[in-house]
Amino acid sequence: MGVISSYFGAVIASATTLLISNEKMTIIMIFLLPVAILLSLFCGTLKLTEEDLPKKGLWWRVSVIGLSVGFYEGFFGPGAGSFFLIGIHLLLKAGLVKASGTAKAFNIAANLGAVTTFASAGTLYYSLALPCAVASILGNRLGAIYAVKIGPTLVRSMLYFVLVMLLISLITRFVI
């Protein structure tokens, strides 16, 4: 259910982005990222241990994560994997390593939804997208190896590092 809802959330958002200017999207994202960072810090601690999946409302929670973060993926893109991880960790009570692994499946589905929408609109630069996709696959593989080897402490540290760097890059891009 999470993979399906992630895909459709991204398709809906990608179609929406085709109607909005880049400048407006950058401004929106600069304001949304700090909210997401604060949410992840104050809506529950990032626990390093595993818990049982909630029995009540599991599919509803999975669908909300998929649709909302899938929408974000299709609308903006950067940082969606981190937001999937946060959602799975906080709403499903999965440990950070399992949340990270599960987030990858959700993220792939959302990426496919966005790619198919943008490709059908003729807005892809394949010469840029294909090398970035290969680099992303290699980076994800390397990150997964170290997440399993080192554990949830690395996942938590990298999560906040990536979110802060993303925010800095957007602000810099907007100001310059």
List keywords for this structure.
mainly alpha; 7 helices; 176 residues; 81% helix
> In percent, how helical is the residue content?
over 70%
Overall shape: globular
Q: Give the overall pLDDT as a whole number.
A: 82
Order of helices and strands: HHHHHHH
**What distance separates the N and C termini?**
41 Å
Q: Structural class of the helix and strand makeup?
A: mainly alpha
Plain-language structure description:
This protein is mostly helical and 176 residues long. 81% of the residues lie in helices and 0% in strands. The chain is built from 7 helices and no strands. It has helices at 2-17, 22-42, 58-75, 80-92, 96-120, 126-150, 152-175. The N and C termini lie far apart (41 Å). The model has no long low-confidence stretch (mean pLDDT 82).
How would you briefly describe this protein structure?
The chain has 176 residues and is mostly helical.
Strand-helix topology:
Layout: H1 2-17, H2 22-42, H3 58-75, H4 80-92, H5 96-120, H6 126-150, H7 152-175
Helix pairs in contact: 1-3, 1-5, 2-7, 3-4, 3-5, 4-5, 6-7
